[in-house]
Amino acid sequence: MPSTTSIKKGIAINHKGQSWIIIEDTHVHPSRGSAFTRAKMRNLKTGQVLEETFRSGESVELADTARNKCQFLYKDGNQYHFMEDDTYDQFHLDETSIGDNKKYLLEGTSCYALHIDGNPVSIQLPPKMEFKVTQSPPGVKGDTATGGSKECTIETGTKIKVPLFIKEGEIIIVNTETGDYVSKA
After folding, report:
1. Per-residue pLDDT tens for 168-183?
2. CA dihedral 92, 94, 100, 106 (to 10 degrees)
3. What are the structural domains, with CATH classification, of the chain?
4. What is the pTM of this model?
């Protein structure tokens, strides 16, 4: 059985008799005492969000899951519609199941659907994705003594902190797990 070191964002575990998906994880190594993992997780049946602390070395049971490649089709209200790449079966997930991934979904985006007991329960985006900058205020030379950043808007409407040299219309790479700018494409 895997230990708490395997707890990472996007995996599903069985905890207290129910299936949960990890939506945030923090591994803490204090100078005194033993390490631990703090995990924020969402119940896959009820949608309840719970923050739990696991001691280092404690075992966790991974949920029996399958990952299938799929494609985002469209959003209808708070329902997100997807299509499986292999079977062309369509399914939808609600906004709470999508979570923060909604910030990076464009029509045609390839991702993975996480299935538990044959039912899609969540999606997982590629860790890095390219987006076009739709709004970017001009960076003024001399604004800062060191690096410096500004806030721009990408084509999904999400605001990202970028370096001052990024201009409107450029393609940038964004880390979808942290929401940070990575580089120009």
Report:
1. 899 999 998 888 888 8
2. 40
3. 4-62 (2.30.30.30), 65-124 (2.40.50.140), 128-184 (2.40.50.140)
4. 0.73
